[in-house]
Write a structure and sequence with these properties.
By secondary structure, the chain is mainly α. Helices cover about 75% and strands about 0% of the residues.
Length: about 325
């Protein structure tokens, strides 16, 4: 059975080099379906030499071929990450697909390309600096989220890819230099589509964790925007509030004394202590990490004795090691 499956897949892969565009297109459609429905087929497809052909197809002018190739690469990234990352030209092909998101690349191919980057990076830390060194990829992902006519699904997949890239600390300054902060805050302030603000603030929480974030955040009044998200009047979800807390905490810690003062001022200037109320809400109702970060932020921005019980409870639950 396994031998027959391997032989069938090898035959399909061999058709990717056909001079007939129709034959290649049919093979791409078959590989997409097989790689989706049969997880065991993915390493066989990789071993059969499909990845270089799939990567090359991302340069195609045919939307359907782009989509089938990108979707197959995404499916392969779930279980064959090493094969993809070791394939010469793969990252350049993904970069090409993303770079032309507003012209020749179909939205579905853009989405699968961004999702492939996320899939490669979220489970394998060692790939993050490699992808982070590809400035074209970061620039293109930032442009996807900034472009007015991008499909919502494209924006969400691009945000997830940027989040995975930002998990590696040295990538954050590159993201800032390529315009990530204004692009993210434009989404946070103007976009109300489901899940996009959650994802944008999650990326911002990571990007804030570097020294270069201080100036970038100041230019967009980032601390004030994040503080506003904590106000109960804005109706932000708990996830958004947790991300805002994390971003403010990282900004205060990584930006120095001036940034710490700006964060404290932004929290204090909220109407009716709304931002402070939001931090307390996260400290009491957030995830384990979220609660701890909220308490740490309280310690930085307030000396009000009203919050001593939260700080003491957190210290008791997280005793220092001896």
């Amino acid at each position: 059975m396994e031998t027959a499956k391997r032989r069938t897949i090898e035959t399909i892969v061999s058709k990717l080099s056909s001079v007939s565009e129709q034959t290649r297109a049919a093979a791409l459609a078959e590989l997409r379906l097989i790689s989706k429905q049969d997880p065991d087929s993915r390493p066989i497809i990789s071993d059969a030499g499909a990845i270089p052909y799939l990567a090359e197809t991302l340069y195609s002018s045919s939307p359907s071929s782009q989509e089938n190739a990108a979707a197959t690469l995404l499916n392969l990234s779930i279980t064959s990450r090493e094969s993809l990352m070791s394939s010469r030209g793969l990252l350049d092909a993904l970069s090409h697909a993303l770079r032309h998101h507003d012209t020749t690349t179909s939205p579905a191919a853009v989405q699968s390309s961004a999702a492939t980057i996320y899939s490669l990076l979220i489970a394998e830390e060692s790939y993050r600096p490699i992808v982070g060194s590809k400035r074209d990829i970061i620039f293109s992902l930032v442009h996807v989220i900034r472009y007015q006519d991008s499909h919502p699904r494209s924006i969400k997949d691009a945000l997830k890819a940027l989040f995975a890239i930002a998990l590696h600390p040295t990538n954050r300054s590159t993201m800032i230099s390529l315009g990530a902060i204004p692009a993210l805050f434009s989404l946070i302030v103007k976009d109300s589509r489901c899940g996009i603000v959650e994802d944008a603030t999650a990326v911002m929480a990571q990007v804030a964790g570097c020294e270069e974030s201080e100036e970038g955040m100041r230019r967009v009044s980032g601390a004030n925007v994040l503080a506003d998200l904590l106000d109960p009047c804005t109706g932000s979800s708990l996830r958004i509030k947790e991300n805002a807390v994390s971003a403010l905490l990282n900004l205060a810690r990584c930006g120095g004394d001036e940034a710490r003062l700006e964060v404290a001022s932004a929290v204090a200037s909220g109407a009716d202590e709304g931002a402070m109320e939001g931090i307390v809400f996260v400290a009491e109702n957030g995830s384990v990490k979220g609660r701890k970060k909220a308490v740490d932020l309280l310690k930085l921005v307030s000396s009000d004795s009203r919050f001593d019980h939260l700080i003491n409870d957190n210290d008791n639950n997280n005793p220092s090691s001896i």
